[in-house]
Amino acid sequence: MTDLSRRGLIAAAAGTAFAASPAASQAPSPAAPLPERGGKGADVLGPKNLARDAQDPWTLAPPATDHGTMPNLKWSFADSHMRLEDGGWARQTTIRELPVSKAMAGVNMRLKANAVREMHWHKEAEWAYMIKGRARITAVDQEGRTFADDVGEGDLWYFPSGIPHSIQGLAGPEDGCEFLLVFDDGGFSEDSTFLITDWLAHTPRDVLAKNFGLPEAAFANIPEKELYIFPGPKPGPLADDKLGGAGPIPTSFSHRMLAQEPVRTRGGTVRITDSRNFPASTTIAAALVEIEPGGMRELHWHPNGDEWQYYLSGQGRMTVFGSESKARTFDYRAGDVGYVPFAMGHYIENTGREPLTFLEMFKSPRYADISLAQWMALTPHALVQAHTKLDRAQIDGLSSRKNPVVPG
């Protein structure tokens, strides 16, 4: 017997032993998950990616309540192309990586201290959440009004479509910053932004001279191609960058999300930021959700658009109900993107030992959700009982108030 066939027999025996254990029929094992649950399924005889299987136990062995065919609703930024630059990096999740994500796209970006995401603008509006570190952001609007602010962990910014802006990493406990950008179009591409250096490089020197009232020689050293991310000069005091122009922009492009008082429940917290408390953010609404171990974001749906999620810490499980008896379960960890198509019912459960924290984003000026429990509590109880066969006393005891995060 060859070494190869001997190893194959040992592996097969190990798989059979695991499959026979009582625990294997109830739930996937994090150590050696198999596509088996409740006596159904079988082990994998072919190639396996054990590290990936361990991260996706409920995808590998879905609960019996999953049914039908639904699109993929998960993408990890770890699988996105990493664009490396002198001073940082960028990677994106768009409709090209996650085809169901038609309403929104995301970019994860890192800038070292003093590194600059060069002056640019987009066709799409840009919403951002600072994950770590600090940055200085600047912008100028169509009236010549200016904006400059220093943003840190948990802060947001929003630049409307067409508004030119810049981002520069600041020195601090972290070497610069890392942030999430969300754009209100799934077809967005970070490589298709309008960059000042790219425009100058593709404009004749005599035209530049005429436009700025300078000699052609003044443009002898302009870059021959885009800079995108590059090392810049150390920023001075913030007050020095608040230039006059036509005055300050009347509606701030930044917001302190973590400074908001959250909705607190026994299962966790929720902070909601939309155009009501961040007036500049007219196309993106968001919620920052923290779920304690064993807790759950209640069964609910959103009546005003698709949901784009970014997982900041912990691990969780989401099941999405898509009508027509369709339901599918996905596992998520920090750095993953989740997606829920418009109006589909869903819940998110913390399956780890640490708090699960994630962002929910919507292409809408207002955040809105509908709670299944609240709907049942506020519908004639005899009618609810006829549908659910629950005991009438249990239905009468349902709370008429939303409980966005329920305890375990």
Can you walk me through this structure?
With 408 residues, the chain is α+β, with helices and mostly antiparallel strands. Helix content is 17%, strand content 34%. The protein has helices at 3-20, 22-26, 50-55, 57-60, 196-201, 205-212, 238-241, 372-377, 381-388, 392-396, and strands at residues 36-37, 40-41, 74-76, 83-85, 88-93, 105-111, 115-121, 126-133, 135-140, 146-151, 155-159, 165-169, 177-183, 194-195, 229-231, 254-256, 263-265, 268-273, 285-291, 296-301, 307-313, 315-321, 327-333, 336-340, 345-350, 356-362, 370-371, 405-406. The strands form five sheets. A seven-stranded antiparallel sheet has the order 3-24-21-26-19-18-17, with no helix packed on it. The model is unreliable at 1-26 (pLDDT under 50).
